Amino acid sequence: QGQLVESGGGLVQAGGSLRLSCAASESIVRIDRMGWYRQAPEKQRELVAVQTSGGTTNYADSVKGRFTISRGNAKNTMYLEMTSLKPEDTAVYYCYLVGTYYSGTYYNNGVDYWGKGTLVTVSS
After folding, report:
1. What letter does residue 26 receive in the DSSP assignment?
2. Percent of the chain scored above 90 by pLDDT?
């Protein structure tokens, strides 16, 4: 039914930058909405950034002006550019999308996909 694979997490000092990548399998033929969520230890998963197919983008207040969500030139890739990182940005980051899956014989619309997550650690 398709899958998402994140990469780019790691350890960075406060004030540094990281770029997270998310690749969706080719069986996901249309993306209606895509985004990034994160979950810090002992906290609930929270929305970081979301972009609709029309290009409307929303960010959590805590990351506005520091993080940027974008689509890649390669089909079915997306990125989260993170700058001016803070220790409170430490979390597992998950990419997410709602899209259409094509099996080769049928389409399945409005399917939710989640990546397995990539850890970002910001040291003070």
Report:
1. T
2. 77
Could you give the residue ranges of the DSSP H alpha helices within 4-76?
Answer: none
pLDDT reading at 44 higher than 90? yes
Pick from 97, 96, 37, 45: nearest CA to 67? 37
Instruction: Give the residue among 54, 57, 114 at the shortest CA–CA distance from 81.
Output: 57
In this structure, what are the phi and psi dihedrals at residue 51, rounded to the nearest 5 degrees?
A: -135, 130
| Contact assessment for residue 6 and residue 22, using Cβ atoms and an 8 Å cutoff | yes
Category of 116 on φ-ψ map: left (φ > 0), alpha (ψ -120 to 50) or beta: alpha
Sequence-distant (≥ 6) Cβ neighbours of residue 75 within 8 angstroms: 26
Q: Using an 8 Å Cβ cutoff, are 69 and 49 in contact?
A: yes
> Mapping DSSP to helix (H, G, I), strand (E, B) and coil, where does residue 20 land?
strand
Q: d(Cα 114, Cα 90) in Å, to the nearest integer?
A: 19
> Are the C-beta atoms of 28 and 2 separated by less than 8 Å?
yes
